[in-house]
Prior knowledge:
Layout: E1 7-13, H1 18-28, E2 35-42, H2 48-55, E3 60-62, H3 70-83, E4 88-91, H4 100-105, E5 110-114, H5 126-133, E6 137-144, E7 154-161, H6 168-192, E8 195-198, E9 201-204
Parallel strand pairs: 1-2, 1-4, 2-3, 4-5
Antiparallel strand pairs: 5-6, 6-7, 8-9
Amino acid sequence: MKPNGLKNLGILLSGRGSNFVAIADSIDAGRIPGARIAVVISNRADAPGVETARKRGLNALVSASKGKEREAHDREVVAALKKHNVDLICLAGYMRLLSPWFVRQFPQRILNIHPSLLPAFPGLEAQQQAFAYGVKVSGCTVHFVDEELDHGAIIVQKTVPVLDSDDEHTLAERILEQEHKAYSEAIGIVLEGKFEVVGRRLVRS
């Protein structure tokens, strides 16, 4: 049951889950009103984010992906999300591509954060890609997940200047700071529901 009409979030992670921690901190501080984390799911038993979630008193599950076909694993994860009545799914360093079947179960209800200004530098190691390319501005993007990689409609972007003194690690650290802010902002927008997606554009009403 959902206490007091709160919206249930499901967090998917594969590692330490720094964005998960930022989301949890924002909920605790009242920056994402009307939300609670109903379940945290990892595809890796050794993901530090699992223990972090349990220490915070949250439901944390492991659904191991190793050796399983993608859709078979996705069906396990979807079953757990539905069991916990999840309204919105947030990918927080989840290193698995979701199958088209998974995405269709939750249309415009799955969010992802990517450490670049999409559509620039999709895929892995985006900060390193940006630094190597020599861009002067980078940042992060929160977007809806669709059936293509790093492709869905953009909800929030934050920019980060690339300094002459930067290396790829310092740039990545400054982008991560903005990720933590952007994700909470995007969740608030989506849960409020005062928007529509027109083509690729999210228009707030």
